Amino acid sequence: MANEWATFGADLHLELRGPRRRAGLMDALREAVRSGRLEAGTRLPSSRSLAADLGMARNTVADAYAELVAEGWLTARQGSGTRVARRTAPRRTTPPSPPPRPSAPVRPGPPAAPAHDLKAGTPDLASFPRAEWLKAYRRALTAAPNEAFGYGDPRGRIELRTALAEYLARARGVHVRPERIVICAGFVHGLMLIGEVLRGRGVRDVAVESYGLDVHAGLLTRAGLGTPVLPIDERGTRVEELTGAGGVLLTPAHQFPLGGALPPDRRAAVVDWARASGGLVLEDDYDGEFRYDRQPVGALQGLDPERVVYLGTASKSLAPGLRLAWMVVPERLVGEVVAAKGAVDWASSAPDQLAFAEFLGSGAYDRHVRAMRLRYRRRRDQLVEAVAAHSPATRVSGIAAGLHAVLALPPGTEQDVLRAAAWHGLAVLGLNQFRRPGVEPGLDGLVVGYATPPDSGWHGALQALCRVLP
What we know:
Elements: H1 21-34, H2 47-54, H3 58-71, E1 74-77, E2 81-84, E3 116-117, H4 130-143, H5 158-172, E4 181-184, H6 187-200, E5 206-209, H7 214-222, E6 229-230, E7 232-233, E8 236-237, E9 247-250, H8 264-277, E10 280-284, E11 308-313, E12 325-328, H9 334-341, H10 350-361, H11 364-390, E13 396-397, E14 404-409, H12 414-423, E15 426-427, E16 429-430, E17 444-449, H13 455-468
Parallel strand pairs: 3-15, 5-6, 5-9, 9-10, 10-11
Antiparallel strand pairs: 1-2, 4-12, 7-8, 11-12, 13-14, 14-17, 16-17
Helix pairs in contact: 1-3, 2-3, 4-10, 5-10, 6-7, 6-9, 11-13, 12-13
């Protein structure tokens, strides 16, 4: 007869000691409760289930449960089963300590946690389309083949790569086939992979923009690559300064954090550089879906798919917690990127990939992006109006697209404004926090993420921002 111990109820690990079975069980349960391993309210297995697990008579377990209920260790109710009792703390028997002597008054500091968050880089998480995502998840799981729950192709699920190929070609002007897409667990993961590939190919340097996220340059550095800095002017990154590097990391559709788009002549120039030098352009299209006052700027990859690695993500359009991103890789590099990722797709959940493929294919993603574009544009407009009313001298830039704006500050005032923001419970970042090491100080300003607060907190955050502006 087959063993039945694995077919009953919840698992409960107990170590019984001594020859007396009931006493050993009671001691083990007391110790599990006393040590905190079984918390108050935890439901225990039925006497039948635990007896089968421990290889003892059901009556022995039932008697042990009953005695522990009488002692107050457990509770038992009809329909609720046997649970760990809630035990009150013992009454205090020692006199309380005398109150501390009064000390000199201390100036109150800023709040321990900010009341308002305007840091750039995060969408409105409260707007995640839970109902539509759940529908997509159910449909995807219902239709999923059994092999979808195995280790899978290291490039990612073919269903998602096919849906992404259609979407990226249609919405971002990317030239792509599914076999050239590699699914990643976020942009950082993709950058790690391509950095490893470039270093393996003998590349020494990948140039970066004067302003950007330190974590990205740090990943390239940890891959063994140098990160020379490209200067910037009023038209954006000066790509004509590219000399000697084997690659360049750019945010051409919406520079982070300054907010401008790389003009057409410089887009053409960086592609010409890549063709002439054999270099590679790493295109970070982190929020390319969100544009407001201009026609969408297509992906740089469309100018030369064999010289540009396109990196996109669902972190801004949906939520970073999904850990879904993608790379469109030149054909000659696909094998090397897959080798760097590993023999199996360990990074991104296959059910999540299938759900996203369904979300894309059903049109729900397009509907969500359009709805969020309208919401973020309203917030952008409210931000511009509020700043104009409270601080007319403050120039707001980088607002034609994306999820953040840059508020210019008088020279030398950035740190003072940041300190004032902290005192008012406002989390916001200064422009110079994104300036690369070695770059001469330039503009002072605030990088305001107007997508971050939920609707209920948006107006409070906006008021707090206006209070700290000079």
